[in-house]
Amino acid sequence: MGFFQVDQIPLDSVSDNMTADAPKRQLLRTIVESNRPDLGQYAGFYRDVHQNPDISAMEANTAKKAASHLERLGYTVHPHIGGHGVVGMFSNGPGKIVLMRAELDALPILEETSVPYRSERRMVDRYGNERPVMHACGHDMNMAALLAAADLLKAAAHHWNGTLLVVFQPDEEETGGAQAMLDDGLYDRVPVPDLMLGQHVGPLRAGTVAIRSGPILVAADSLRIRVTGGPCEGSANPQICVDPIPLSMRIVSGLQEAVTHEVGPHEDATVACWGFHAGEPGDDYVTHADILLDIKTIKPDIRRRVLDVVMKKFLDECRAAGVPRDPEFKHTVRAPLTSNDDAIAGTVRYAFHDYFAGNVAEMTLNRACEDFSTLGAAPYNVPYAYWKFGSTPEDAVKPVPVNHSPFFAPEVNLTLKTGADAMALAALAFLVV
Ligand SMILES: [Zn+2]
């Protein structure tokens, strides 16, 4: 997932119904505080995984560490789902089936923090390129917090009933891992959950959590487009041979305007070019240009229209320029909208509000994307809540590095405690009846 914005709206009021059910809220607090494991071992897990990250779809080592830890905790472990996906299951009598998820993968980024456990790892990615690797999105912290929550919940098993599914998902950064787990029979091995919980570390003050109902992360599509120039038989003269570079640049620079014109300025729809490659040093002329686009939207009908507008724009401009071949389109990423269910997010927020007191914020719609919701997509239609928890030390110097920055360096202890408590508390809110 991409970076988080840091803007947040503090909750300044508590609705009347939040004052009800005080005994249950007190019980949840007691369960969390009296069953929280020693977090030192999870801080150790975090530092180890941070120093030894795995790039997307190549997470064998990290998956093995998560699986063996779940086994030690007494979970029944299902490894190798959709690549390196891992699910730990713990059945504790009749009750709700709750899925909790963290991500296994790191990013192809050269770490520039000064922490003693910084990564110096390089890996060959799935495309055959050797890359530096860094947990610059904080999935290492998400994993450590999830494992600690799984430990806490197991230790507190006599307080609740139901089933836990602890999911470590591969390949989140390219948003393919959730679908790969489904395609590989995730729900043939474990039951379909009644609800799902996900959380992500981000640049809020450590000790805080942020949640809200409704859309929180945009839908995203990435397109890889090849524009071919020419015809160039016998001459590279631009009067008879179209250069694909200026042609492609012209198309790209007009895309956002074309989209805004088509869907209207009031709709949330953006097109960004994040990659452009044409030619090699020493080439006399260039045959084609490759363009990478990110399209971000909220509404499904607008998403379809924007995709249509972008593809038509390339097609029309290439044909008007007289090139011999239509552009080629490859749809590389399809990340769904992440939109919290009102009832599930309401219950989680209610539990958070009491436990974290003044440290709960209203999450804002963010332009990052996620494939968490895919785990519960149709035909399963599992409702879910997804929130973020803060990682910024009190004395941080601004500007604070955000997710996907080579300088992203979460504070460890309070961040881990907050993430572990938040995940355990959210699960208990549904499992303690
Ligand atoms: Zn992420």
TrEMBL record:
Record bears the keyword Metal-binding: yes
Entries under InterPro entries matching the protein: Amidohydrolase, Bact_exopeptidase_dim_dom, Peptidase_M20
Organism: Lasiosphaeris hirsuta
Family statement drawn from the similarity comment of this UniProt entry: Belongs to the peptidase M20A family.
UniProt keyword Metal-binding present: yes
CC cofactor: Mn(2+)
Recorded GO MF terms: hydrolase activity; metal ion binding
Cofactor-binding details, from the entry: The Mn(2+) ion enhances activity.
Species lineage: Eukaryota, Fungi, Dikarya, Ascomycota, Pezizomycotina
Binding site for Mn(2+) 1: E173
Binding site for Mn(2+) 2: C137, H139, H200, H404
Keywords: Manganese, Metal-binding
Name of protein: Metal-dependent amidase/aminoacylase/carboxypeptidase
